[in-house]
Every structure is written in C-alpha cells, then in structure tokens.
Amino acid sequence: MKKKITLLLLLSLIISALWGCGNKSPTGDLDFPEITGDRFVYAAKMYGKLIRYDVIDKKAVIACPDPLCRHDTTSCLVTNIFTAYVSHDYIMYGRLEEGILGGYTIYCYDLKNGIISQLLDCPGYQSVTFIKEAAYFSASHVEYDGDGKPKGSVWDVYRYTMKSKELVMLNEEGLGSAVSVETYTDNQILWWDCDGSGSYFTTDYNFKNQTPATYELRTGDYVYDFKTIYGEDGTFTHTICRKKTKSDNWEEVVAGIFSYRLDNADDPKGIVYNINEKSEWDSIYYKKLSDLSVRKIGTVPKGYTLTNNGVYPEIGTSFYADGYIGIYVSKNSAKHSDTHNGNTVWFVNVDTGDNFVLTP
User: How many CA atoms lie within 13 A of 108 on its CB side?
Assistant: First the structure.
C-alpha cells in the first residue's frame, strides 16, 4: 500500500512538472479572476516578458499561467516576445523562438482560461487588430524556385477566430508587402499597405472586393492631423491640429510637445503629453478634447524619471485601466539597458491625480 501511495505521489509530481505554460488551472502569483477590462494592463517590452499590471491590488507579475515556470528560459511562452497585441480577453503575440534569425512563432493567449495556443511560424508579421470575434494580421513566408532555392518573401493575410481556434489565410495570391488594419466598419476593413507607398484600400471581411481608399484620423466629430516641427539644432516637437468633419477650418489643439497619447484608445476624452524641457520633462499634462482646456495631472515620483519614450505606450496596448494611464519610468540611477528594457510603470489617474509605481 505504501508503494502505491509513493508511486501516485511521484506520478502527480511528474504530471505537474509537464503541465507547461498551457496549464488550465494555474496557481501561484498569477490568478485569473473575472476579466473586467478595468483592472489589468498587459504589456511586453520588445524582446522581453509579458507583464500583467493590476491597478486595483497595485501589483505587477509576469503573466505566465504555469505555476512551476521560472521564466528564465525560452521554454517559458511569455518570454522573448517581439510585440504583443492586447484585447479584452485575448493577447496575440510573436516570439523569437531561436533568436532574431530564426523567425517568429505567433501565439494566442486566452486570458480567461490561462491557455496559450501556437498558431503559426513565419519569418515576419505585421500588427494584429481585433475585430469582433477575430484577429486580423499579415505574416510572411518564403517562396522557393524549382531547385529548392529561396527566391524571396511574400505576405499573406490571416484571420484567427479565437473561440473556434480557426486560422484562415484570406488572400488567394501572395502580397508584395505587409498590410495592417487601419480601421473598420460593420462590413468593410480599411487596410494600410506597409511598403514605401503607404497607400490605403478597403476590402470586405474576407479580403475580397479590394478598392483604393483614403484615410483621415477621426475621433468624435473631428479629423486630426499630427505634424513634427524640427529645429536647427536637431531637436523636434509635435503639433496636433483638428477640424470639424465638414469644415476646412483647422484649429491648433496643442503645440511644442515631445510625446503624446490618447488617455483611452477605446473612448478618448483627452490627450496626455509631456514637454522636452529639463525642468518640465517629468511633468505630465492633459488636454481635454471637449473644450481644449489643459491641466497638469502629475509629476513622476521622486527617484524616478520618464524613459526616452516619454509618455508613449508600448505597441499593442493602450496602457489604460480604471481611470489610470500607465507610463514607463526608470530609477534616476538606472543604467541605459535597465532604462530601455525595464518594466517599471507609473500609473496616474487622469481625473484625481492619484498615482503609484509598479515593478514586477
């Protein structure tokens, strides 16, 4: 009887060790409470780890669903991430499995169930956009001649439906360059051709009926335009202007700023920005879109400073939850590599000014 119990315990330990990052019932630092959309921010620095920031409990952890993983080897599926694209319930991201020359593997992370699924291996991929129940993106593959020698890369457009886990290639012929979704309506997708021409076109949801198009950045009743102003000393600032959708009269929203972002990409109410002046670098301002009033919403806490990216969020995440915006910061004494690769985030509430710093 003792031998049977010992064998059962040993088998249990072996199974636990083999669960890996696809474990359905995770324990440890990363739990999976009801996803609210107003609590967690997920983000990954380029070639870094996927981090989950919790603005309610005020803690940050590596977003790995495997309770036994140490996140220190490539076997951890939330490490070595190139870019991660976050929706309400899912994250799509590409990993460098075997270094920069080894190409990428694209994964989908089911946040509700803590399951990571592998979708596709490819030399390269373009930004992922979530539309309704699916994700759209383009990825490349290498074509070969009759002798089996590579003759170049072409691009394909994919739709991945998360619930059914169905990956479908939508184009019939390979594309000469990557494309990405710029915006969409109920029955059309506006695409941007990512080559040097930077042209736009629309298709239906199956990438059919392609039609040339133009694009204007619209938020509410306004069209926005962004300009970069270069100084003689090599410095630069940004100016944002807007006009009513049925008007030709432009007005200045804000000028002389270094970095900027919308407070909330899903329902923007204002622009968050900073200024590239030594005494003002760590001060964050908020321009309200409704009346263009401006106010200072906070200063980076003592001992920390903004990174070189200013207030720009990481690609793929809005860095917004429960009224808080997240901005990367680093310690004043940090080395350049720590500043560039660090995951410390300062969260500040755009309405109340309440703020705190989280480091995983």
Answer: 26
Q: Sorting pLDDT into bands at 50, 70 and 90, what band is 73? A: confident
Nearest to 47 by CA among 107, 111, 89, 93: 93
SS (H, E, C) the chain: CHHHHHHHHHHHHHHHHHCHHHCCCCCCCCCCCCCCCCCEEEEECCCECEEEEECCCCEEEECCCCCCCCCCCCCCCCCCEEEEEECCCEEEEEEECCCHHHCEEEEEEECCCCEEEEEEEECCECCCEEECCEEEEEEEEEEECCCCCEEEEEEEEEEEECCCCEEEECCCCCECCCEEEEEECCCCEEEEECCCCCCEEEECCCCCCCEEECCCEEECCEEEEEEEEECCCCCEEEEEEEEECCCCCCEEEEEEECEEEECCCCCCCEEEEECCCCCCCCEEEEEECCCCCEEEEEECCCCEEECCCCCCCCCCCCCEECCEEEEEEEECCCCHHHHHHCCCEEEEECCCCCEEEECC
For residues 123 and 139, what is the distance between their CA atoms, to the nearest angstrom? 8
pTM of the model: 0.84
Q: What is the pLDDT of residues 284-340, one digit of tens each?
A: 999 999 999 999 999 999 999 999 999 998 888 888 999 999 999 999 987 776 667
| Res 37: pLDDT | 53
How far apart CA 269 and CA 327 sit, in angstroms, is 18
Is residue 20 very low, low, confident or very high in pLDDT (cuts 50, 70, 90)? Answer: very low
187/191 Cα distance (integer angstroms): 13
- For 176-188, what is each residue's pLDDT tens digit? 999 999 999 999 9
